[in-house]
Specification:
single chain, alpha+beta, Ubiquitin-like (UB roll), 3 domains, four-stranded antiparallel beta sheet, three-stranded antiparallel beta sheet, 47% helix, binds zinc ion
Length: 333
């Protein structure tokens, strides 16, 4: 094609060229398909300044993709979804005014900022932040955002949160939650993990959850799910566990609670027909979940109940008490 060469400063024949080039982003070569023109008279290569195909922007996008980082449009969409301004979000995050704007326009965020961005895109974290900094947005706006946040949660999680929090309020991480925020998606997927291949009696499931959280605390000083466990007559169980189970039974098609009649008793079993989403769990959490599932695979509900009655955390508490994770040090497994 004919065009103006910036070097010859006159109309010459320009060759359109596309080729792969490595662009170095944070010491990593990122392969990008770049487009440019070459003047056939003087040989100079130059980019069309009107082109939207900015190689650096493409390289950043690819780098973010490879490293599972937040893309600029995700931040914009998030703000639009909840109708908050760049200034409001900056204030919530405690960032300077220009930072967020630069990221939305394609600058590559640093790692610490990316971690914060990824956390904030989770509805529950965003809600916590709004609660902790109520001065940043008006009360009316906060109420609207809270409504949207609850709507964006999934069936079981939503129904459980509303029910549980209305009845019992929220709790902060403490020795009773294994120093962790309650993560309902993890409880949900732990339940599916434990019940996937064989139907598990309800009383056994409660102990499996207890042993997984306490075993993880014993080894890593933090629980998996953030659940609190109470001393109940049949052993330790997630506090108010009937609410988890009722929410699961009502909201999830792939989980049923079935009553089964045996010679001398009626038992409730969890029947699961879906696969757990294991991407919620870290490597250490998966290791502990697997260990606990295998260790107790041949235990009846009665046998695991008896073992749990011998735990010092159980013996040192009374009916209805919460069991501190500090007792995990002496756990029998
Ligand atoms: Zn030229």
């Amino acid at each position: 094609m004919l065009g103006i060469c910036p070097n010859c400063e006159k109309e010459t024949t320009l060759e359109f060229i596309k080729r792969d080039e490595n662009i170095i982003v944070r010491n990593e070569p990122i392969k990008v398909n770049v487009e440019f023109y070459k003047c056939v008279e003087c040989g100079v290569e130059f980019r069309d300044p009107k082109s939207l195909n900015d190689p650096l922007a493409i390289a950043y996008r690819e780098y973010r993709h490879v490293h599972n980082m937040v893309q600029p449009e995700q931040i914009k969409e998030f703000r639009e979804q909840y109708n908050i301004t760049q200034q409001e979000l900056s204030n919530l995050l405690g960032w300077g005014g220009a930072t967020l704007s630069r990221y939305e326009n394609g600058a590559l965020q640093d790692e610490a900022h990316d971690t914060v961005l990824r956390l904030i895109l989770e509805p529950r974290n965003f809600r916590d932040l709004l609660e902790n900094k109520p001065e940043v947005v008006s009360e009316l706006k906060r109420k609207k955002i809270n409504g949207l946040l609850v709507d964006s949660m999934k069936g079981f999680e939503k129904s459980f949160m509303i029910m549980y929090e209305e009845l019992f309020g929220r709790y902060k991480p403490s020795k009773y939650s294994g120093y962790k925020e309650l993560e309902i998606a993890k409880i949900f997927n732990s339940i599916i993990f434990f019940c996937k291949d064989s139907d598990v009696p309800k009383t056994k499931l409660n102990k499996l959850l207890f042993y997984a959280d306490f075993k993880h605390f014993k080894e890593y000083t933090v629980s998996i799910t953030g659940a609190q466990y109470a001393h109940l007559p049949f052993g330790p169980a997630p506090d108010h566990y009937q609410y988890y189970l009722a929410a699961l039974d009502n909201e999830e098609e792939n989980i049923r609670i079935e009553e089964r009649v045996f010679a001398d008793y009626i038992g409730e079993f969890l029947v699961v027909t879906t696969n757990p989403n294991l991407s919620y769990f870290s490597t250490s959490e998966l290791k502990i979940l697997t260990t606990v599932k295998e260790y107790f695979s041949n235990f009846t509900a009665k046998a695991i109940s008896e073992l749990s009655h011998r735990e010092i955390g159980y013996q040192s508490t009374k009916d209805g008490d919460l069991i501190s994770y500090e007792y995990a040090a002496s756990l029998n497994i």
